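Task card 7
Instruction: Convert sequence to structure tokens.
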Amino acid sequence: MGDWEAGSWKWCLKWISGDVENQEAPGLLEFQNLLEKAEPKRNIVDAFDWYSNTDKIFTVKSCYLNLMQSLSTSGEDASLIRVMNLALKVKIPSKVKFLRLRLFLDRLPTRCQLSKRGLGFNVHERVCAFCFTFDENIGHLMFECQSSKCIWKEISVWLEFDMLFSGDNMKNFLSSFTLLKGMVDKKRKWVIWMTTCWFVWNKRNTIMFKKEIVDISEVVVFNIKLFSWIWLVIDSSYTQE
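Output:
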């Protein structure tokens, strides 16, 4: 990472992935320029200030709001930003909220994503854990794989609301939430939508790491309905118009 030379700190950065991809090069250069302006000081305890919050203390909420602000200034679709702001108000477990954020930012460690980071997946090992046919990226794994589609179809029938969509068209699907009438209805469907994503991802990990054969449709759909109901009844605002 770096070392002291003649009383001054010198950064020495080495990247695991070796060659940096073209789309990552600008961010890497910006990061290196920021580091050049920072020099550790000996015999002084490190301190951290989070300037996106008034009290300079980091919170997930302040990070999320800062992200929303950056999206709004970057020209992102206004309806998508409103939906993501709504997602912040939905009361679900923190681990599910974290999954939602990584899903939106394309930061889930799918096989394709790990392969880009040079973590040992060759072209033949990047296939989906469900179908073993197509590359495992977020769009395919969560929404386009036939196994995932079976789940979304069952949930769509249950809700009487179409949740079948293409991973490449995810923003348009999220924007459709703005057409729903009433905040309660939007929150309910958000909880169910995220619960579904959560269970699809968990079952993928069960196959990957525990080498278990999973009934990806019947059992998963039952658990989605069960946990959605549990998380919905915890907050009375989901049941009051």
